[in-house]
Amino acid sequence: MDGLVECSSALFAEDAGTRDPSINIDWPREHGPQRFATGIDDPNRLLLVATCEGAVVGHLVGALGEASAMKPVKFATLVSMYVQPGFRRSRIGGRLVAEFSGWAKESGAEAAEVTAYSSNAEAIKFYERNGFAPQSVTLQTSL
């Protein structure tokens, strides 16, 4: 659990911490242990970690969404993913996404989605290489 929290903290610091001042970058340390612990036994959530010599070097969190009248297909959301910089380009991220996609299909999902900051060009390229395509754009303004 400690490794997962640290990995999630690194994601928040590197990604939202440099792109979105409205995000509480301390969330993983403050709420992560409880959130991750409840997700372990939830069949609608997926928690994956990648390790090297016993240390967590990457993680992926996924969730299933049920079909509704507005969106009549079951879908999977890749909620968060991070690979430590020293382990990038070693196919860890691709393997995590492949595991997520397999889990989603086995769980009956018909589609998968992921959100990335528009300024995170590397993440967008990574997700596109792994089968995701842009679908919508969220615009925001400060008030």
Task: List its traits.
alpha+beta, 4 strands, 143 residues, four-stranded mixed sheet, 4 helices, 22% strand
Write the layout of secondary structure elements.
Layout: H1 2-19, H2 27-40, E1 45-52, E2 55-65, E3 75-83, H3 92-106, E4 111-114, H4 121-129
Parallel strand pairs: 3-4
Antiparallel strand pairs: 1-2, 2-3
Helix pairs in contact: 1-2
Beta-strand percentage? 15-25%
Helical residues, percent = 25-40%
Q: How many distinct helices? A: 4
- Summed over residues and divided by their number, the pLDDT gives a mean of 93
Characterization of this structure:
- The chain is of the alpha+beta class.
- 39% of the residues lie in helices and 22% in strands.
- It contains four helices and four strands.
- It has helices at residues 2-19, 27-40, 92-106, 121-129; strands at 45-52, 55-65, 75-83, 111-114.
- A four-stranded mixed sheet has the order 1-2-3-4, with helices on both faces.
- Strand 1 (45-52) and strand 2 form a beta hairpin.
- Helix 1 (2-19) crosses helix 2.
- The longest helix is centred in the first third of the chain and has 18 residues, at 2-19.
- The model has no long low-confidence stretch (mean pLDDT 93).
